[in-house]
Design goal:
By secondary structure, the protein is an alpha+beta fold. The chain contains two helices and eight strands. The strands form two sheets. Strands 3, 4, 5, 7 and 8 form a five-stranded antiparallel beta sheet that branches. The chain has a three-stranded antiparallel beta sheet with strand order 1-2-6.
Length: about 140
């Protein structure tokens, strides 16, 4: 009887864990790059399956701030979908600032949140002044 209880408990735990892997990961960002003068781009030769470095450029007249709160999305069937590991994830409240006319490197390591990425079309989104700024890139 004890073995049956253990097996049933293990099955319930597995089903519970698997149900958390599914779900709707449609993007929460219908519009991106609406912050005038601020751009995010992939730094050349830094893209790996588990990380990349992005350049956040502030060509506006005012300082901007961002938290290292990022969203990694993949284009699937013409729709952006957020990786389960970055959907709803939260990071510290500490902000970084970028002065007018400055560019800063933003290294991102998504391995611990969503593992590696394969070939496909992706976009990295940072919240800058609480607005989504995105960089699209392709992995061959």
């Amino acid at each position: 009887m004890k073995k049956i209880w253990c097996v049933l408990t293990a099955i319930c735990i597995c089903l519970f864990a698997l149900s958390g892997c599914g779900g709707d990961y449609a993007t929460q960002f219908s519009e991106v790059n609406q912050l005038e003068g601020v751009t995010l781009s992939l730094q050349e030769d830094t893209l790996k399956s588990t990380s990349a470095t992005f350049l956040l450029t502030n060509d506006s007249d005012e300082e901007v701030t961002y938290r290292l709160l990022y969203h990694l999305e993949e284009l699937k069937d013409g729709q952006w979908e957020e990786f389960p590991g970055t959907a709803g994830a939260s990071w510290g409240e500490e902000t970084q600032s970028v002065a007018p006319g400055e560019t800063t490197e933003v290294p991102i390591n998504w391995k611990t949140l969503c593992g590696g990425i394969g070939s496909g079309e992706y976009r990295m989104i940072l919240l800058v002044n609480d607005l989504p700024v995105a960089a699209e890139f392709t992995v061959d």
